[in-house]
From TrEMBL:
Domain Polysaccharide chain length determinant N-terminal span(s) in chain numbering: 23-118
Main location: membrane
Subcellular location: Cell membrane
Membrane topology listed for this record: Multi-pass membrane protein
Cellular component, GO, one term: plasma membrane
Pfam families assigned: Wzz
Full protein name: Lipopolysaccharide biosynthesis protein
Listed InterPro entries: Bact_polysacc_biosynth/exp, LPS_length_determ_N
Annotated transmembrane regions: 38-56, 332-352
PANTHER family, per database record: CAPSULAR EXOPOLYSACCHARIDE FAMILY, TYROSINE-PROTEIN KINASE
Keywords: Cell membrane, Membrane, Transmembrane, Transmembrane helix
Amino acid sequence: MSNMNEVSKKNHEDEIAIKEVIITVKEWFNFLISKWKIIFLAGIIGALVGLAYSFSREPVYTASLSFALEDEKSGSGGIGGALGLASTLGLDIGGGAGGVFTGANLAELFKSRSMVEQTLLTPVSIDGKTISLAEMYIEDSGWRESWEKEPNLRNIKFLPNSDRKGFTRVHDSILGAIYKNLSKALVVGQKDKKIAIISIDVLSSNELFSKYFCEALATKVSQFYVETKSKKSTENMLILKRQTDSIRRELNGAINGVAVANDNNFNLNPALNVRRAPSARRQVDVQANTAILTELIKQSELAKVTVRRETPLIQVIDRPILPLPKEKFGKLKGIVVGGFLAGLLTVIYLVFRRLVKLILK
């Protein structure tokens, strides 16, 4: 019996708690309804602010470029067999560079300050005038007008293909500011981990700048990537070429020496064999240099094959084509978002102010 009374009492208390919650919610709802004019006015003001923001907001153009990396393992056919045979014979012809710039590392290479700054110094033609991408960015951002009042900035120029070593601290700070802005507008990565295709997206308010910068960045990184990956094999090929030219000169000299020695031995007494020694020695030089030259030529040709196998390493699939996709903050979006945010903030303010009054009472 006592248990039943306790359960009944508990249910009664729960009902009272629910009623209190409902009453409280109703009071707050009635309070907000009584302030509908203030909330509505705030929403109207917010909508007008959002509309004004949509007019002031410039459209953003996105330039996209996609490329695929050459798979070194794909060359394991005839060329790979030749390289493997050369290694078996103890011939080092270079190649086989490590995967330092692959996957995520390559994506970071695109975003590196060095690559971005080199790209900013790339020349482009705008209205018949050749300027650098850095100057194009500065003019489009309106920095040049504000620099007219600054003596240390007035004469700052970024000429196309300028030598980076000759830049001053001011040049470096400006390039650093541009790099900081562009790093936020540069997206590099694989859209699908299962697909070995990397895409580059450049966003800016200038359609031509997005296109030119995207293409120039891909070119700069491609050049750096190819030079780095094939550096060892290229240096090895040049060394083999110098050695081959040197041995060829020695061989030509030895052949001429044999001819001269034979001329000196013309109508020589057969009993004087010692006079034939210079000719025999030169003949040995000819044979030795011929064997060395044969091996060097083989290695040189294999080294050339290695360089060709590693170049190019980046294959562009799609390039940005005008007109570029444009994203603009629409007027309707500005009105809806501005009105909603203003109304929400007003409601929060009114609720907070009433809570403070209740607490003080």
